[in-house]
């Protein structure tokens, strides 16, 4: 374990500045400009254990439970901070920054969700960012998405499936996204809706990693399921056991370690495929490599956008101090707006 930590911290020291840069870019809403950022996106069917996996990685309690809990995307930024004695947490959404604490985090996320998506069971694509600075967390940024559900539960809009699919697709379609597919050991993987969706955008599974939760609930046949790889997961499987009931974070990790060490069936699964600490290490490695791979291209695209904006700016009228100067300039702007509008294009098409 100690060597794992040393390894993780050396990764963290190297990757931290790059990850911070990407997170700052995320803040600038680059995706709205058509520039995609390297992102690890958590998907899974409803109640597969997505929020529990994030909880395990962050060592905090998130809203969890039956039915739909995660109703808006949650961008979770974990920042390992070896100097901090006390964890520091805050939420960012809309133009708000709300400091919070480990005890209050679940309630704070619920409040923010209600503000964004209403008090009912509706969902929204507008994200909440949760920043967690803590001693023993890996430097990772992950996005948790609402779980996929075929059948609306009472109070959910009837097109909930389409709404959720749309949000999920937006996040997983870009080739810069790594798909963390959360599968419950209690189900048949090929029947998972999240598998169907991720295969739609990543057929060979080259950017898909599977996390199998609830290993404790269905140990029979798990080894066979993850070695047979019926559903083509290119980046491999990681079997975990999350916090159950009122366990503390430490109790949950001890119990997970004990389970994969001594359970007659689970102990046969290779150690490189089990446990939250191994998952954290794999994710930091994957994150480092996608950032390294994507950053040069992002810099290039930002340069292009910038040049484009600068030349647009330069083509603007320079000095409009009199009405006589301003009128022709206004006329030119109006003409070019009308010519470029889709409505005009439509009219031209239909009249020709
Ligand atoms: P989400 O809807 O995908 O975010 O799923 P949640 O994280 O809310 O989990 C759904 C339920 O499964 C909760 O009651 C969790 O406590 C339970 N759960 C998640 N992971 C595990 C696990 O590894 N073992 C057990 N026994 N229960 C789990
Ligand atoms: Mg959830």
Automatic annotation (TrEMBL):
A molecular function GO annotation: GTPase activity
Annotated keywords: GTP-binding, Nucleotide-binding
Span of domain Dynamin-type G: 34-296
InterPro entries registered for this protein in UniProt: Dynamin, Dynamin_GTPase, Dynamin_N, Dynamin_stalk, G_DYNAMIN_dom, P-loop_NTPase
GO cellular component: cytoplasm; membrane; microtubule
Keyword Nucleotide-binding assigned: yes
Protein name: Interferon-induced GTP-binding protein Mx1
């Amino acid at each position: 374990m100690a060597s794992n930590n040393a390894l993780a911290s050396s990764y963290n020291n190297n990757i931290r500045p790059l990850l911070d840069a990407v997170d700052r870019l995320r803040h600038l809403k680059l995706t709205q400009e058509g520039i995609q950022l390297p992102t690890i996106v958590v998907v899974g069917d409803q109640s597969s254990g997505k929020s529990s996996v994030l909880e395990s990685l962050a060592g905090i309690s998130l809203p969890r439970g039956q039915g739909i809990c995660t109703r808006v995307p949650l961008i979770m930024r974990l920042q390992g901070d070896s100097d901090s004695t006390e964890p520091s947490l805050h939420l960012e959404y809309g133009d708000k920054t709300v400091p919070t604490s480990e005890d209050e985090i679940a309630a704070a996320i619920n409040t923010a969700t209600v503000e964004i998506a209403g008090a009912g069971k509706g969902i929204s694509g507008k994200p909440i960012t949760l920043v967690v600075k803590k001693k023993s967390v890996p430097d990772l940024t992950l996005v948790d998405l609402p779980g996929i559900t075929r059948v609306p539960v009472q109070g959910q809009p009837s097109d909930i499936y389409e709404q959720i699919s749309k949000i999920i697709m937006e996040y997983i379609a870009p080739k810069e996204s790594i798909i963390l597919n959360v599968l419950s050991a209690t189900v048949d993987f090929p029947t998972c809706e999240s598998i169907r969706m991720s295969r739609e955008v990543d057929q060979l599974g080259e950017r898909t990693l599977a996390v199998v939760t609830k290993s404790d609930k269905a140990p029979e046949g798990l080894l066979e399921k993850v070695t047979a790889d019926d559903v083509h997961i290119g980046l491999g499987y990681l079997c975990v056991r999350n916090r159950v009931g009122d366990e503390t974070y430490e109790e949950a990790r001890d119990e997970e370690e004990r389970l994969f060490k001594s359970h007659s069936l689970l102990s046969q699964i290779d150690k490189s495929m089990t446990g939250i600490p191994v998952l954290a290490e794999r994710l930091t490695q994957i994150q480092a490599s996608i950032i390294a791979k994507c950053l040069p291209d992002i810099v290039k695209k930002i340069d292009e956008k910038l040049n484009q904006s600068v030349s647009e700016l330069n083509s603007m009228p320079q000095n409009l101090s009199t009405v006589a100067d301003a009128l022709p300039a206004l006329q030119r702007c109006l003409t070019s707006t009308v010519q470029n509008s889709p409505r005009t294009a439509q009219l031209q098409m239909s009249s020709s």
